[in-house]
């Protein structure tokens, strides 16, 4: 027993020595570290800034300063950040401990969805606030296939693991109503021309307002003539789908559109002009060919003769181009402003037509009035048709230009579509002649209207056909000879 005693005593000595060393170290730290500076500072994550004075414990009249790079300290991210603090001309190694001890907050609301509609936990929450990134989860896992109401627990968890829980009601409704497609019609296009498949096509649903229409045109070959099947589809949020079949017919088109009703124009300096008035553009396949009018070289403020270019294009790029001239002349001393002329014409129309008349009845009334109230006489200035119409209204007489002009003015004021027609002179000694093509159905069809008095058979030229006019012209020295390519053909009867 006595042999083991020295060993026990040795261990006790070693423990005593270690304890003494530790005490010396602690005493040294206490003696070396100033009592008025803390070595560690804990702050809540999310602060905007921090001051070195927060490390002081006393001597508040003396400022402490950071001497290390503070850009490395992220007050929004939890962690331990070493810093150096200078105080009373000494620099100390300290640490800033950024902690996140607060649970995130948010505004939670109830949610209603239709079966099949996408849903995520974030749909329940708005205005989330926390110093760190927040994830949203829920319990229980919602069943979006059955119509029901479920009390949901919405969980907000920040990067430090702090959590907050809220309750909200999820309402699921079953949607069995299929969406509707309208405006699906057969499509006609031309080789090489991609049609607008969705033009005029709309989708509606009793619940879903955000509907996307898809078109399966994979069978269409735009490079080959033929008729091809296409399919329109629309699916609502609940997965209900509607499909509608249709066709695309691809045809060949090498024919350019026609431009009709285009003539050389003459007018007085400063007068208003409508280059599109009476101009008709048509195409054998394109129902809506485009018309461009280039008047960039026309100067209505200076006398002269200028080019005016009409260009018509169909959807396949076929093009027709016509160039005419615009002649601008100085105003005569007898010039009357358009407003004055229109006012006088409107007063005259009160004697001729009534508002309840059809377009056809108005045309016939205008024809009868002009024929019976004006006298054919002499030769007129044909520079401006409006001035020619005013001469007829005030003087009561004029030549074929005046008859055409007063008729045109009255038609225009009634809103009746009309096209100017001019005789083609085959010989220098041939006389000029002017009349109109008139539509009583809104521009769909046109008939000839010539109010200039004629003698002999066929004196009635109110709404007559090409055949009637051609027969009369052939029997009367080609008095109505015209370039038929410039005008729409009339119905046969």
Task: Explain what the structure shows.
The longest helix is centred in the N-terminal third of the chain and has 28 residues, at about 5-30. The strands form nine sheets. The chain has a four-stranded mixed sheet, with no helix packed on it. It has a four-stranded mixed sheet with strand order 6-10-9-8, with no helix packed on it. It has five domains: about 35-100, Immunoglobulins (Immunoglobulin-like, Sandwich), CATH 2.60.40; about 105-175, Immunoglobulin-like (Sandwich), CATH 2.60.40.10; about 180-250, Immunoglobulin-like, CATH 2.60.40; about 260-330, Immunoglobulins (Immunoglobulin-like, Sandwich), CATH 2.60.40; about 340-485, C8orf32 fold (Roll), CATH 3.10.620.30. Helix content is about 20%, strand content about 30%. The chain has helices spanning about 5-30, 340-350, 360-375, 385-395, 400-415, 465-475, and strands at about 40-45, 65, 80-85, 90-100, 105-110, 110-115, 125-130, 135-140, 150-160, 165-175, 180, 185-190, 200-205, 215, 225-235, 240-250, 260, 265-270, 280, 290-295, 305-315, 320-330, 375, 395-400, 420, 435-440, 445-450, 460-465. Mean pLDDT is about 90; it is low at about 1-5 and about 25-35.
